[in-house]
Amino acid sequence: MRVWKSALAFGLATSGALALLLAGSALGQPAARAQGDEIAVASLVNASGAPVGVVTFTQDGPNVKVSAEVKGLPAGFHGFHIHAVGTCDASTAFMSAGGHYNPGGATHADHAGDMPSLYFNSSGSASATFATDRFAVADLFDADGSAVMVHADRDNFGNIPARYGVTPDEMTLATGDAGARSACGVVSRPA
């Protein structure tokens, strides 16, 4: 019960911060940040270029609070990652964003950019709030930037138990078999 109450309080607090970022703005058009905050934002678009959501990253000590509000994808789980290049070119099916953000050279599920999957409800909306210590907000602004990606399929996190008698292949270990790239947003600093 205590964990649930903490998660609810954290969710309510961060959804308030997200509401402030979106206040007075269209979906995907973040408002100005408060002076001194270490915040990054990714405004997500689909392959047609239509806005479908926003993801915010807020540095909080050693952790980064991640808040996502996304709409317009089929119901179910969808892979959700930070990709290594800050380019979202729909004409390349968002392949311009490169692979997962992975400065440590790990296999999937241990990439710094691997995040919990997003669950889209029957109306095609997803909302998530969590904290991670896999990267700092400043890390997302390396020489070629970073992008946030929502994939078409669920992410297996490279998890194929040995009891199935199958060794995870290169694709599973690289991407978690999350499928095509459905929505992309370049990570940027709010104006």
> In CATH terms, what is the architecture?
Sandwich
Distance between the termini: 40 Å
Total domains, how many?
1
- What is the element string, with H for helices and E for strands? HEEEEEEEHE
**How confident overall, as mean pLDDT?**
83
Total number of helical segments? 2
Describe this structure in words.
The protein is of the alpha+beta class. Residues 1-36 have low confidence and may be disordered. Helix content is 14%, strand content 33%. The chain starts with a helix and ends with a strand. A hairpin with a 2-residue loop joins strand 2 and strand 3 (63-71). Strands 5-4-7-8-1-2-3-6 form an 8-stranded antiparallel sheet, covered by helices on one side. It has a single domain, classed as Immunoglobulin-like (Sandwich), CATH 2.60.40.200.
Condensed summary:
The chain is of the alpha+beta class. It has helices at residues 2-22, 170-175, and strands at 39-46, 51-60, 63-71, 76-83, 114-120, 125-132, 147-151, 181-188.
List the helices and strands and how they pair.
Layout: H1 2-22, E1 39-46, E2 51-60, E3 63-71, E4 76-83, E5 114-120, E6 125-132, E7 147-151, H2 170-175, E8 181-188
Antiparallel strand pairs: 1-2, 1-8, 2-3, 3-6, 4-5, 4-7, 7-8
